[in-house]
Amino acid sequence: MFLLRGLRKFKWIIEKSMCYTLVFVITPYFFIFEMVVVRPIIVTTYEFSTMKHAFHILLSMFFFINIVGNMILGIFTDTTIKMRARSHNCEEFCESCQMYRPAKAWHCKKCNACILKRDHHCFFFSRCIGLRNQRYYVTYLTYIFISMVYSTYFNFYYVVSKYDEYEIYVSVCRIVNPFLRYLIPEPMGMKDLYVFFLFLNVGLVIWSGGLFVFHTRNVLRGETSHEYKENTRSTFRNNLSAMKRNFINVFGEKWYIALVWPLANSPLPETTEDRGDEY
Questions:
Q1: CA dist 97 to 109, 194, 203, 224, Å?
Q2: 39: closest CA among 22, 54, 24?
Q3: What pLDDT, in 10s, does the model give residues 119-158?
Q4: Among 127, 132, 188, 221, which residue has the fewest nearby CB atoms (within 10 Å)?
Q5: Residues 58-69 pLDDT 10s
Q6: Can you give 149-216 as a three-state secondary structure string?
Q7: Which of 251, 244, 246 is nearest to 233 (CA)?
Q8: Residues paired with 100 in a beta bridge
Q9: What is the structure's pLDDT at 206?
Q10: What span, in angstroms and rounded, lies between the C-alpha atoms of 112 and 205?
Q11: What is the DSSP code string of 231-275?
């Protein structure tokens, strides 16, 4: 039992460390690299006008603010059930928390709490995604996907403008098959790092795009990841009014502001199922 608790504590420390590293180290470093290293080469090589240059700077800052802002708010927004009292919405009793919980609320072993409208436990957020922070999570995925596509486009032209076709081809071969680096006499250099970074960009586009499509689909269908995995939803009304209602239930009544500004106050509608302020 002592070893089990120690292992859980170790996993918790690793998860928290990865979470804060992603927010305060990796994401800012990626932004700084794009702005300080990639941007000047692209602007000079392709002769950007002042207007176009300013537009790309503002767009990059907009992506950065929304990515970091939504991630921080998603991490620090509590989605647990607070009061241990029975309500007319409560359906099940949680033995671990010793309280009744409403529909779509599930107990998370990692958080050791019941989560309102629990979707899943996010390793990168080090928190469960639920009723109160699903908006931040889905918006975060949206901007991560868009920014990855955006940066991949510029990183491709950065590599093409900096190195010739032969050098790029050699680097690609060495990345695809690492054993070739022992057969190719040319020493590895910065170009291999830049090409690897481009490969990483493409991988992040695929990864973030898959998550974006999956969770956006769930938002429009009004279901959680748990329900999707368990296949507990038997019917879905595929019409605009139902999808709009499901969308507002996640992003709130001022969804049009919430999509572009993480600090926007966008309260959930009064009819939202299992509202958090009742618990």
A1: 11, 50, 40, 22
A2: 54
A3: 999 988 989 999 999 999 999 999 999 999 999 999 898 8
A4: 188
A5: 999 999 999 999
A6: HHHHHHHHHHHHHHCCHHHHHHHHHHHHCHHHHHCCCCCCCHHHHHHHHHHHHHHHHHHHHHHHHHHH
A7: 246
A8: 93
A9: 95
A10: 33
A11: T-------SHHHHHHHHHHHH-TTHHHHTT-TT---PPPTT-TT-
**pLDDT score, position 30:** 87
Instruction: For the beta carbon of residue 233, count every other beta carbon within 10 angstroms.
Output: 13
Predicted confidence band at 162 (pLDDT cuts at 50, 70, 90)?
Answer: confident
State residue 143's pLDDT score. 96
pLDDT-derived band at 72 (thresholds 50, 70, 90) equals: very high
Beta bridge partners of 99: 94
**Cβ(151)–Cβ(201) below 8 Å:** yes
Q: Which tens digit of pLDDT belongs to each residue from 32-41?
A: 888 888 888 8
Check residue 135 and give its pLDDT: 96
Burial of 22 (0-12, 13-18, 19+ CB in 10 A): middle
Backbone angles phi, psi at 82, to 5 degrees: -90, -55
Q: Which helix (H) or strand (E) holds 127?
A: strand 127-129
Residue 251 CA to residue 62 CA, distance in Å, equals 19
Look at the block and give the residue holding tokens 């292992």. 7
Burial class (CB in 10 A: 0-12, 13-18, 19+), 251: buried
Placement of tokens 């926007």 in the chain: 264
